[in-house]
Amino acid sequence: MKREENGDIKDYLACVKSVDDNIGRVLDYLKENNLEENTIIVVTSDQGFYLGDHGFFDKRFIYEESLRMPFMVKYPGKIKAGSDNEDIITNIDFAPTLLELAGISTTQKMHVIGESARRANFSLYGYHKKTNPLLSKLNNLYAYPANSSATYTTAGVKSILDHKKSRNFYEILPNYLYRNGIDVIWRTTNWGEPNINIKNYINKQDLGKICLNKSSGYDEILLCGLKERIQNSGSNKMFIVLHTSTSHGPTYSKKYPKQFNQFLPICESVELSKCTQEELINAYDNTILYTDYILSEVIKDLSQLKGYNSTMLFVSDHGESLGEKNLYMHGFPMSIAPKEQFEIPFIVWTSNDSVILKENKSLSQYHVFHSVLDFLAIESPVYDATMSIFK
């Protein structure tokens, strides 16, 4: 049977003609009602179709006829009539393109929770070693001093997610946002989190099943496929949490790939008292160097997303002792804890020059909750404008 004689093809072409006729009716209406000049028309499809190609009808098989689809735009004053664009796009480009055409940006908040990251060893805060060579070169990046509310993970992480210091149980930030329709993603290589009641929670083991590369044993696994996940969201507001474990002792030297062994010699023993303080601090500083790399990669990915209004926060759960006064690691009661265990970094990056931050001379972990609500424009009876870092 010749293809041109096939009734299915004729029916399909009749459908295409009907679509064309009805698009014409829409265009006539816009013209008659003086709406033509300020209305954007987009014609596209979910996928292509087989009309006997390769012996197939319908779709579902991955050949070009099924993959290819139209994407036609009428945008008076912006797109010249009859012009062609040969760039290849996919379905995931539709949402950000349409939002940008409408002048609406996708707002997303990336929050990275540090583990045992003490402020004193970040060169952004004046440390004499260059532990932040990448972040220090970025625009729109701010480093504020902050104190943690505790010196151990479970309490520190909970404080980051709570709206105030209290012994009562309140709904934590990711659960609250998820319940209010925000696309919330939580990825973790750590533990000690409160109960996270969201759909998109993924731990290190699950990430390892889909991210098989040489760095899958380290915290950069948290970035695997993340940019694509953001592009596929379909939501105009997102909140993403990456819960790292990079600077947790005592095996600091095992927390980063070997290429980050920049400060030598290093401590490789789990018995920290058997290492010199120089070796111990060098190994720890290499974890901060690796943190610098991870955060810069996060920012690079966010910067590449067109039509997104993004910000990144990095706040640690607590600090760390590295032999000062013969104390190691963390976990001491706040009443007697040395400052190294509660002085933490609070680092902010924004993609938009118009986002203005307050002076923020001293911050707490509770500032995170209110800053996120402010940035995402979420109304809440517990929101406190004085606790937001944004003006």
Defining traits:
single chain, 2 domains, 391 residues, alpha/beta, 14 strands, elongated, two-stranded antiparallel ribbon, Alkaline Phosphatase, subunit A, 8-stranded mixed beta sheet
Q: How would you characterize the overall build of this protein?
A:
The structure is a single chain. The protein is an alpha/beta fold and 391 residues long. The protein folds into 2 domains: 3-88, no CATH class; 106-387, Alkaline Phosphatase, subunit A. The chain contains 9 helices and 14 strands. The strands form 4 sheets. The chain has an 8-stranded mixed beta sheet with strand order 8-7-9-5-10-13-6-14, sandwiched between helices. A two-stranded antiparallel ribbon has the order 1-4. A hairpin with a 5-residue loop joins strand 2 (50-51) and strand 3. The longest helix is centred in the last third of the chain and has 27 residues, at 277-303. The chain starts with 6 loop residues before the first helix and ends in a 16-residue tail after the last helix.
